[in-house]
Design a protein that fits this description.
The chain is α+β, with helices and mostly antiparallel strands. 15% of the residues lie in helices and 35% in strands. The strands form 3 sheets. A 7-stranded antiparallel sheet has the order 14-13-9-10-11-12-15, with helices on one face. It has a 4-stranded antiparallel sheet with strand order 1-2-3-4, covered by helices on one side. A 4-stranded antiparallel sheet has the order 5-6-7-8. It is globular, with a radius of gyration of 21 Å. The N terminus is likely disordered.
């Protein structure tokens, strides 16, 4: 069934760049090394020319990327820091998703500004670009390097506020340690929680040219129901409703449980901000866990934390990644 225009607009806000939903749970480095039976194109990279040959077919933005010596000056703001680009080294290999295939961190330049992204290999040279850590609307001058914690390859990522300081120089630098989970990089958690998840209810409302309400309920047995209601703001005010059901497989249930615990849902605030902003979703997430305990998060901008944003995205994407049938919502 086709998605409504408003729902697509909501995804365009939520996703900074087109991303592909990952499978698996982001296992530790080398956890699947025994499954890697042949070297990927990333494993064979030796030169900047090899990097450009790999990334330029991946999209128009990457077709204009510059690597190596010519890219270094885009990172001059980081001279004298641990993020300084040394020896014109602007690409690094690591297995971020733990599937036994090397991935690639690229520090490129495009039109004089940094272009930082990762290319992940899902196996059999199936490549995808992941860049969800960069918020171009609010931040500038991204940079990153590879670090390891507890046998896992992580991104140490940094950037500056979008608005320059009074002296015209970058300000408010922020540094984060990010791990790859369920298709993107989110803040690293050394000790995720271990709650048993019983029921998840996700509600979102987004209004732009169309007002769209989405209600998703997932039961302990994996039964899921989804209600989507859309009303056009333009006359005539046409309302469409969809009531859908599906049964989530054990792997998807495990992914959702792992992601909820990784973002430490129980420790998150019950409410983020008092008022919503234009063109931002209103989100309410309710999780029943450990046989009767309840946690509700009200997020009027859908922007509570980076981990929560990724959780919301994961739940929204179930609409497209699973097979739904018409049914009666509970």
């Amino acid at each position: 069934m086709a998605a409504s225009p408003a729902l697509i607009s909501w995804f365009q806000w939520l996703l900074w760049v087109p991303l592909v939903l990952a499978v698996g749970l982001g296992m530790p480095l080398n956890a699947h090394a025994q499954l890697a039976t042949e070297p990927s194109r990333i494993a064979a990279i030796q030169t900047n020319a090899d990097v450009l040959g790999l990334i330029r077919p991946l999209g128009w933005e990457y077709a204009e990327a510059i690597s190596g010596d010519s890219a270094v000056r885009a990172y001059e703001s980081y001279q004298g820091t641990r993020f300084a680009v040394r020896g014109a080294q602007t690409w690094f290999k690591a297995d971020f998703d733990g599937n036994g295939h090397l991935d690639l961190l690229v520090l490129a330049r495009r039109k004089g500004i940094p272009l930082v992204f990762c290319v992940l290999d899902s196996g059999q040279n199936r490549l995808r670009v992941v860049r969800n850590f960069y918020d171009s609307g609010r931040r500038r001058l991204p940079n990153a390097r590879v670090v390891h914690r507890q046998g896992q390859a992580l991104l140490q990522y940094t950037d500056f506020a979008r608005r320059l300081g009074g002296n015209g120089k970058p300000r408010q630098r922020r540094t984060q340690l990010l791990a790859f989970r369920q298709g993107g990089f989110i803040p690293y958690e050394r000790r995720p929680t271990q709650y048993r998840i019983d029921t998840v209810r996700y509600h979102s409302f987004f209004g732009y040219k169309t007002a769209t309400t989405l209600d998703l309920l997932i039961d302990p047995d994996g039964q899921a129901s989804l209600r989507i209601e859309s009303t056009s703001y333009d006359a005539p005010h046409v309302t469409t409703r969809q009531n859908l059901v599906t049964n989530l497989d054990a792997a998807t249930q495990a992914e959702l449980t792992a992601l909820l615990n990784y973002v430490r849902f129980r420790q998150r605030r019950s409410r983020y901000k008092k008022f919503g902003l234009n063109h931002r979703p209103i989100v309410e997430l309710t999780v029943a866990y450990d046989g009767g305990r309840l946690k509700t998060i009200y997020d009027p901008n859908g922007d509570g934390t980076a981990g929560l944003r990724w959780l919301y995205r994961y739940l929204e994407q179930l609409r497209y990644t699973k097979s739904w049938q018409p049914g009666t919502n509970r």
